[in-house]
Amino acid sequence: MIVLVTGGSGCGKSTWAEKLIASLPEENRIYIATMQVYDEESVRRVARHRAQRADKGFRTIECEKDLASADVPEGSIVLLEDLVNLMANEMFDGGDTGRIVPALHGLAEKCRHLVMVTNDVFSDGVAYAESTQGYLRQLADINRQAADLADCVVEVVYSIPVAVKGEVPCV
């Protein structure tokens, strides 16, 4: 099963994705964390996320860039958190955005289950600088390709999962 989970900031998408993973068999649960820790706020966010999943049987792999390099064992149950950070890290920190989608396909082939989290950052109506617009265009393309890859796409709205593609898995 491949699931793409999306939604706005603070909507409960990460919590729902973790509940989905928790409803699956416990062996080989991998949490791929893509957030770069660069200030005190990000340190607090990482600590909060680690506390949220502390008793859920995850092994965390920190992978800010080059997703294909993540050492994920065959047959694992993987939560990839998240495509937005991964894209920003690749684009703005000397990476290569072109390697994201092939890495997603590689994970999908290797994993027993793959849950990818992304973020709806497209609805605010603000006109951004060209570099940010370029980031948003590339992220939209990656989200589209991840949705194509997924069996199910779920938008979390106020902590409620809504099927966009396929059926919402039971958690």
* DSSP strand tally: 7
Radius of gyration, whole Å? 15 Å
Helix content estimate: 25-40%
How does the helix and strand content classify structurally?
Answer: alpha/beta
Q: Quick check: average pLDDT? A: 91
Provide an overview of this structure.
By secondary structure, the chain is α/β, with parallel strands linked by helices. The chain has one domain: 3-Layer(aba) Sandwich (Rossmann fold), CATH 3.40.50. Helices cover 37% and strands 22% of the residues. The chain contains five helices and seven strands, in the order E-H-E-H-E-E-H-H-E-H-E-E. Strands 3-2-4-5-1-6-7 form a seven-stranded mixed sheet, sandwiched between helices. The two termini are 14 Å apart.
Using brief descriptors, characterize the structure shown.
alpha/beta; Rossmann fold; 5 helices
SSE layout and pairing:
Blueprint: E1 2-6, H1 13-22, E2 29-33, H2 40-52, E3 58-62, E4 77-81, H3 83-92, H4 100-110, E5 113-117, H5 130-149, E6 152-157, E7 160-165
Parallel strand pairs: 1-5, 1-6, 2-3, 2-4, 4-5
Antiparallel strand pairs: 6-7
Helix pairs in contact: 3-5, 4-5
